[in-house]
Structure formats: C-alpha cells, structure tokens
Design a protein that fits this description.
Blueprint: H1 3-24, H2 26-53, H3 59-76, H4 81-93, H5 95-101
Helix pairs in contact: 1-2, 2-3, 3-4
Length: 104
C-alpha cells in the first residue's frame, strides 16, 4: 500500500468517526438513536408479518423477503447504504434461530 493510500484511508476513517460522533452523541444524538431504533423495529416487524404469508419458508425465501423490505425502508427512511447493509445482515442472521423453530 502506498503512503498516499494510507493517508487517504486515515482521512476517510476520521471523517466517518466524526460523522458518527456528531450524529449519535449529545442531545441531537439521542434523537437520532431513537429514530434509528424506531424504524429498525418497524422493519423487523414487517419482515415477520410478511414471513407468515409465505407459502414456502426457506432460507432463500427469507433472505429475498428481507431484501425486499429493506429496499423500501432504505428509500422511505433515508437510511445510508452502510447502515442498511448492517441491518440486513443482522436480520438475515436471524434465520439460524428461525429455522430451528419451524415445525416440519
């Protein structure tokens, strides 16, 4: 890695850290955290509701459902791509627990 690439990477990391600190700390941070928690719960609830309507429930169908719901929330809630990817991974990761609860 070239020295200039390391410097650019360091600057980018510092910018991300500064933005996260600005949006998630202090008085404004509390409001932003509450908004994030609110739409996150709504999205998870919607995935569960739509999951009940699936005729065939398997890993692929569940992941497709999560992706479908996430696209809508990404547009409506003005969520950043990185935050949405993290949330999708979290919700998709729940499949291991869900699959154990399915009665075959």
């Amino acid at each position: 890695m070239k020295k200039s690439e390391k410097i650019i990477g360091g600057i980018a990391l510092a910018a991300v850290a500064a933005a996260a600190t600005y949006f998630l700390t202090g008085k404004r941070g509390k409001e932003n955290r509450e908004k994030i928690a609110s739409w996150t719960l709504k999205m998870k609830g919607e995935v569960l509701e739509k999951m009940k309507k699936l005729k065939t429930l398997n890993k692929e169908a569940y992941h497709a459902l999560v992706d479908e719901v996430a696209v809508r929330y990404e547009r409506a809630e003005r969520v950043g791509a990185a935050e949405m990817e993290h949330l999708k991974d979290e919700v998709k990761g729940a499949w291991s627990h869900i699959s154990k609860q399915i009665v075959k």
